[in-house]
């Protein structure tokens, strides 16, 4: 596993100044919380998971803003036309289970300019994600969705559960435009390869996600 670290969720965040911490190998020692803060802003997932394992999954880290998981709110993550299948697929993924606890930050002028794009805090886990990322998942959907009799233009919103082993379960149509659309969207999602799940994720019930899929015929 040599992927970039993405979708990290923290137990809490802090506003300490990285430059005021003491150098400590591949991180810095924080005199406030009395522990090493590892710099994960430019390392791969394999190294990140190794450090987590060495520290009994109790690690504070420094991350770039881009590495953090989206906040669990109903907000579009991306929308993209896939011309080959003429399907507009908008994926909106949010976590209904795990909530990040945040501490109010102090004024940003207390932090160095180098920290303005960095987030500090104790790691909870990396959010489950599809192998290859969103673009690979969108291509998978486009390659497998078929326009059968009864399918019309419109959006289907599916809900599903990511289990600890990465499999998808409890796939349901929350909203749709026809029975044929709903059935086709659910059929394709059931074909999805297993998602990548952080070994530190220990919720036996899994995490709930939603995927809106919009069907649009050519012409």
Could you explain the architecture of this structure?
- With about 220 residues, the chain is of the alpha+beta class.
- Helix content is about 15%, strand content about 30%.
- The chain has three helices and eleven strands.
- It has helices at about 45-55, 135-145, 180-190; strands at about 10-15, 20-25, 25-30, 35-40, 60-65, 80, 85-90, 120-125, 155-160, 170-175, 205-215.
- The strands form two sheets. It has a six-stranded mixed beta sheet with strand order 1-8-5-4-3-2, with no helix packed on it.
- Strand 4 (about 35-40), helix 1 (about 45-55) and strand 5 (about 60-65) form a beta-alpha-beta unit.
- The longest helix has 12 residues, at about 180-190.
- The protein is elongated.
- The termini are far apart.
Short description:
The chain has 219 residues and is of the alpha+beta class.
Task: Name the poorly predicted regions.
Answer: 72-111
With strands numbered from the N-terminus, the spatial order across the biggest sheet is: 1-8-5-4-3-2
Shape by Cα distribution: elongated
Structural class: alpha+beta
**Fraction in helix:** 10-25%
Q: How many distinct helices?
A: 3
Radius of gyration: 20 Å
